[in-house]
Amino acid sequence: MLIDTHAHLDFPDFAPDLMEVLARASAAGVDRIITIGTSVESSRRAVELAKASHRGDLSIPDAPPLPRIFAAVGVHPNSAGQADRHFIEELRDLAKNPEVVAIGEIGGDCHRPPADEREAAETRAVQAEVFRLQLDLAVEQGLNAVVHERDAWTETLAILSPYQGRLRTVFHCFGKDIEHARELLGQNHLVSFTGIVTFKNAATVQETARLLPEGQFFLETDCPFLAPVPRRGKRCEPADTRLVAEHIAALRHTSLDAIASQTNTQAEKFFRFPG
To answer: What is the CA 130 to chain-centroid distance, rounded?
Structure first.
């Protein structure tokens, strides 16, 4: 069985047909999904989905069991400017739910900085402060963190440095070369691959996925974004975890079962799913 370690099931893209989406995931061999918060409101929806899953509310009569849903709660760096002064208390309350298995997604994003230099500096400062507060929350709650990093490598690692040994992170949607990945692994962090690894122009991340040691990466979809080949351009779904796994298995000249076993073992250690 496979684990989609990063999905956004609370997004409106899935509102019309969530049960069918979950049924397709089950048919593809996905038995666990982590739905990830991007704001306080999104995190609240993620927790409600996870609770509904664990209560058994998300089921189809006379059909195989649907995947179990877990949640991560956090404020995405691109939402940091909209976080009010009470956001960390609200996240703390959400993080206490047993269905919550990580803080995330959190981090830094300088991909499209404001043109004005002062505004750009203020944006980076706000992102950094929101990131630190959420890392503190992760340590306080005994959770690991899911990190979003885009064009903010140096700043992100600098912020993480004081937390080494206090928590681990996974850099989701990893797209960098093997040396960047090794830098993270050397600090006891992990990486996760999306459907990007199947793209024709993704030679760098394909090489990273080929060379990483066993058990040092996860599988994810980041759905509804980044559908893998041959579904590129369509809405991505948790079922597409299988396509990501199959492609990585081919890159590493191993079996789908081997990739599933290795990634599941590490994900279970990292997220510590409740029984």
So the answer is: 18
